[in-house]
């Protein structure tokens, strides 16, 4: 890895941490550069434009969740929908992942209005969808796909509950997650 690549990785890590801490409210290029501890010019040396800066930082933040998901349900594991949903609900309501889930809600809200958020949100959602589908123990692909989307919607809903009603309410909802898919 070149020195430029190493520095770029450091910048991405700082940017991801900044976005998780502050949300998308402070996203001018100058503010992003300040958070990355570089000048605006240097930030544009590492990235072609602001959209690339945001995409890299948000992908890093999503990667934190992806790592935890892989630990929770490793590749090759296949679970019934109720079990998988319960595990995902419990994981995504953990205190240390709340900033990641809140950031996801902000990205989705911003995706309604503008790029690069539409593209970023679509890519992240598709990545989680592709991760989830092979881990579902269901007989046919059509049902597996629909169930995957329902689980993703539920997990996203937990993030909304957390933001609007607090972590305790989200945790209570997560605790009964498996019951919703039992049949």
UniProtKB/TrEMBL annotation:
The HTH tetR-type domain extends over 5-65
> Which Pfam families does the record match to this protein?
TetR_C_6, TetR_N
Does Transcription show up as a keyword for this record?
yes
- Keywords assigned by UniProt, alphabetized: DNA-binding, Repressor, Transcription, Transcription regulation
Q: Tell me which domain of life the UniProt entry assigns to the organism this sequence originates from.
A: Bacteria
SUPFAM superfamilies assigned: Homeodomain-like, Tetracyclin repressor-like, C-terminal domain
A molecular function annotated in GO for this UniProt entry is: DNA binding
Q: What is this protein called?
A: AcrR family transcriptional regulator
Organism of this sequence:
Novosphingobium taihuense
């Amino acid at each position: 890895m070149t020195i430029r690549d190493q520095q770029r990785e450091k910048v991405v890590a700082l940017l991801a941490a900044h976005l998780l801490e502050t949300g998308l409210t402070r996203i001018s290029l100058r503010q992003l550069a300040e958070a990355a501890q570089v000048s605006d010019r240097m930030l544009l040396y590492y990235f072609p434009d602001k959209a690339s800066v945001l995409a890299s930082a948000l992908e890093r933040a999503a990667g934190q969740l992806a790592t935890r998901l892989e630990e929770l349900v490793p590749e090759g594991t296949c679970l019934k929908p109720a079990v998988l949903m319960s595990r995902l609900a419990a994981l995504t309501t953990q205190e240390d992942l709340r900033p990641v889930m809140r950031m996801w809600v902000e990205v989705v809200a911003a995706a309604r209005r503008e790029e690069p958020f539409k593209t970023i949100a679509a890519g992240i959602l598709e990545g989680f969808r592709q991760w989830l589908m092979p881990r579902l123990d269901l007989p046919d692909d059509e049902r597996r796909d629909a169930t995957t989307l329902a689980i993703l919607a539920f997990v996203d809903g937990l993030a909304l509950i957390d933001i609007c009603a607090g972590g305790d309410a989200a945790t209570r909802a997560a605790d009964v997650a498996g019951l919703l898919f039992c049949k």
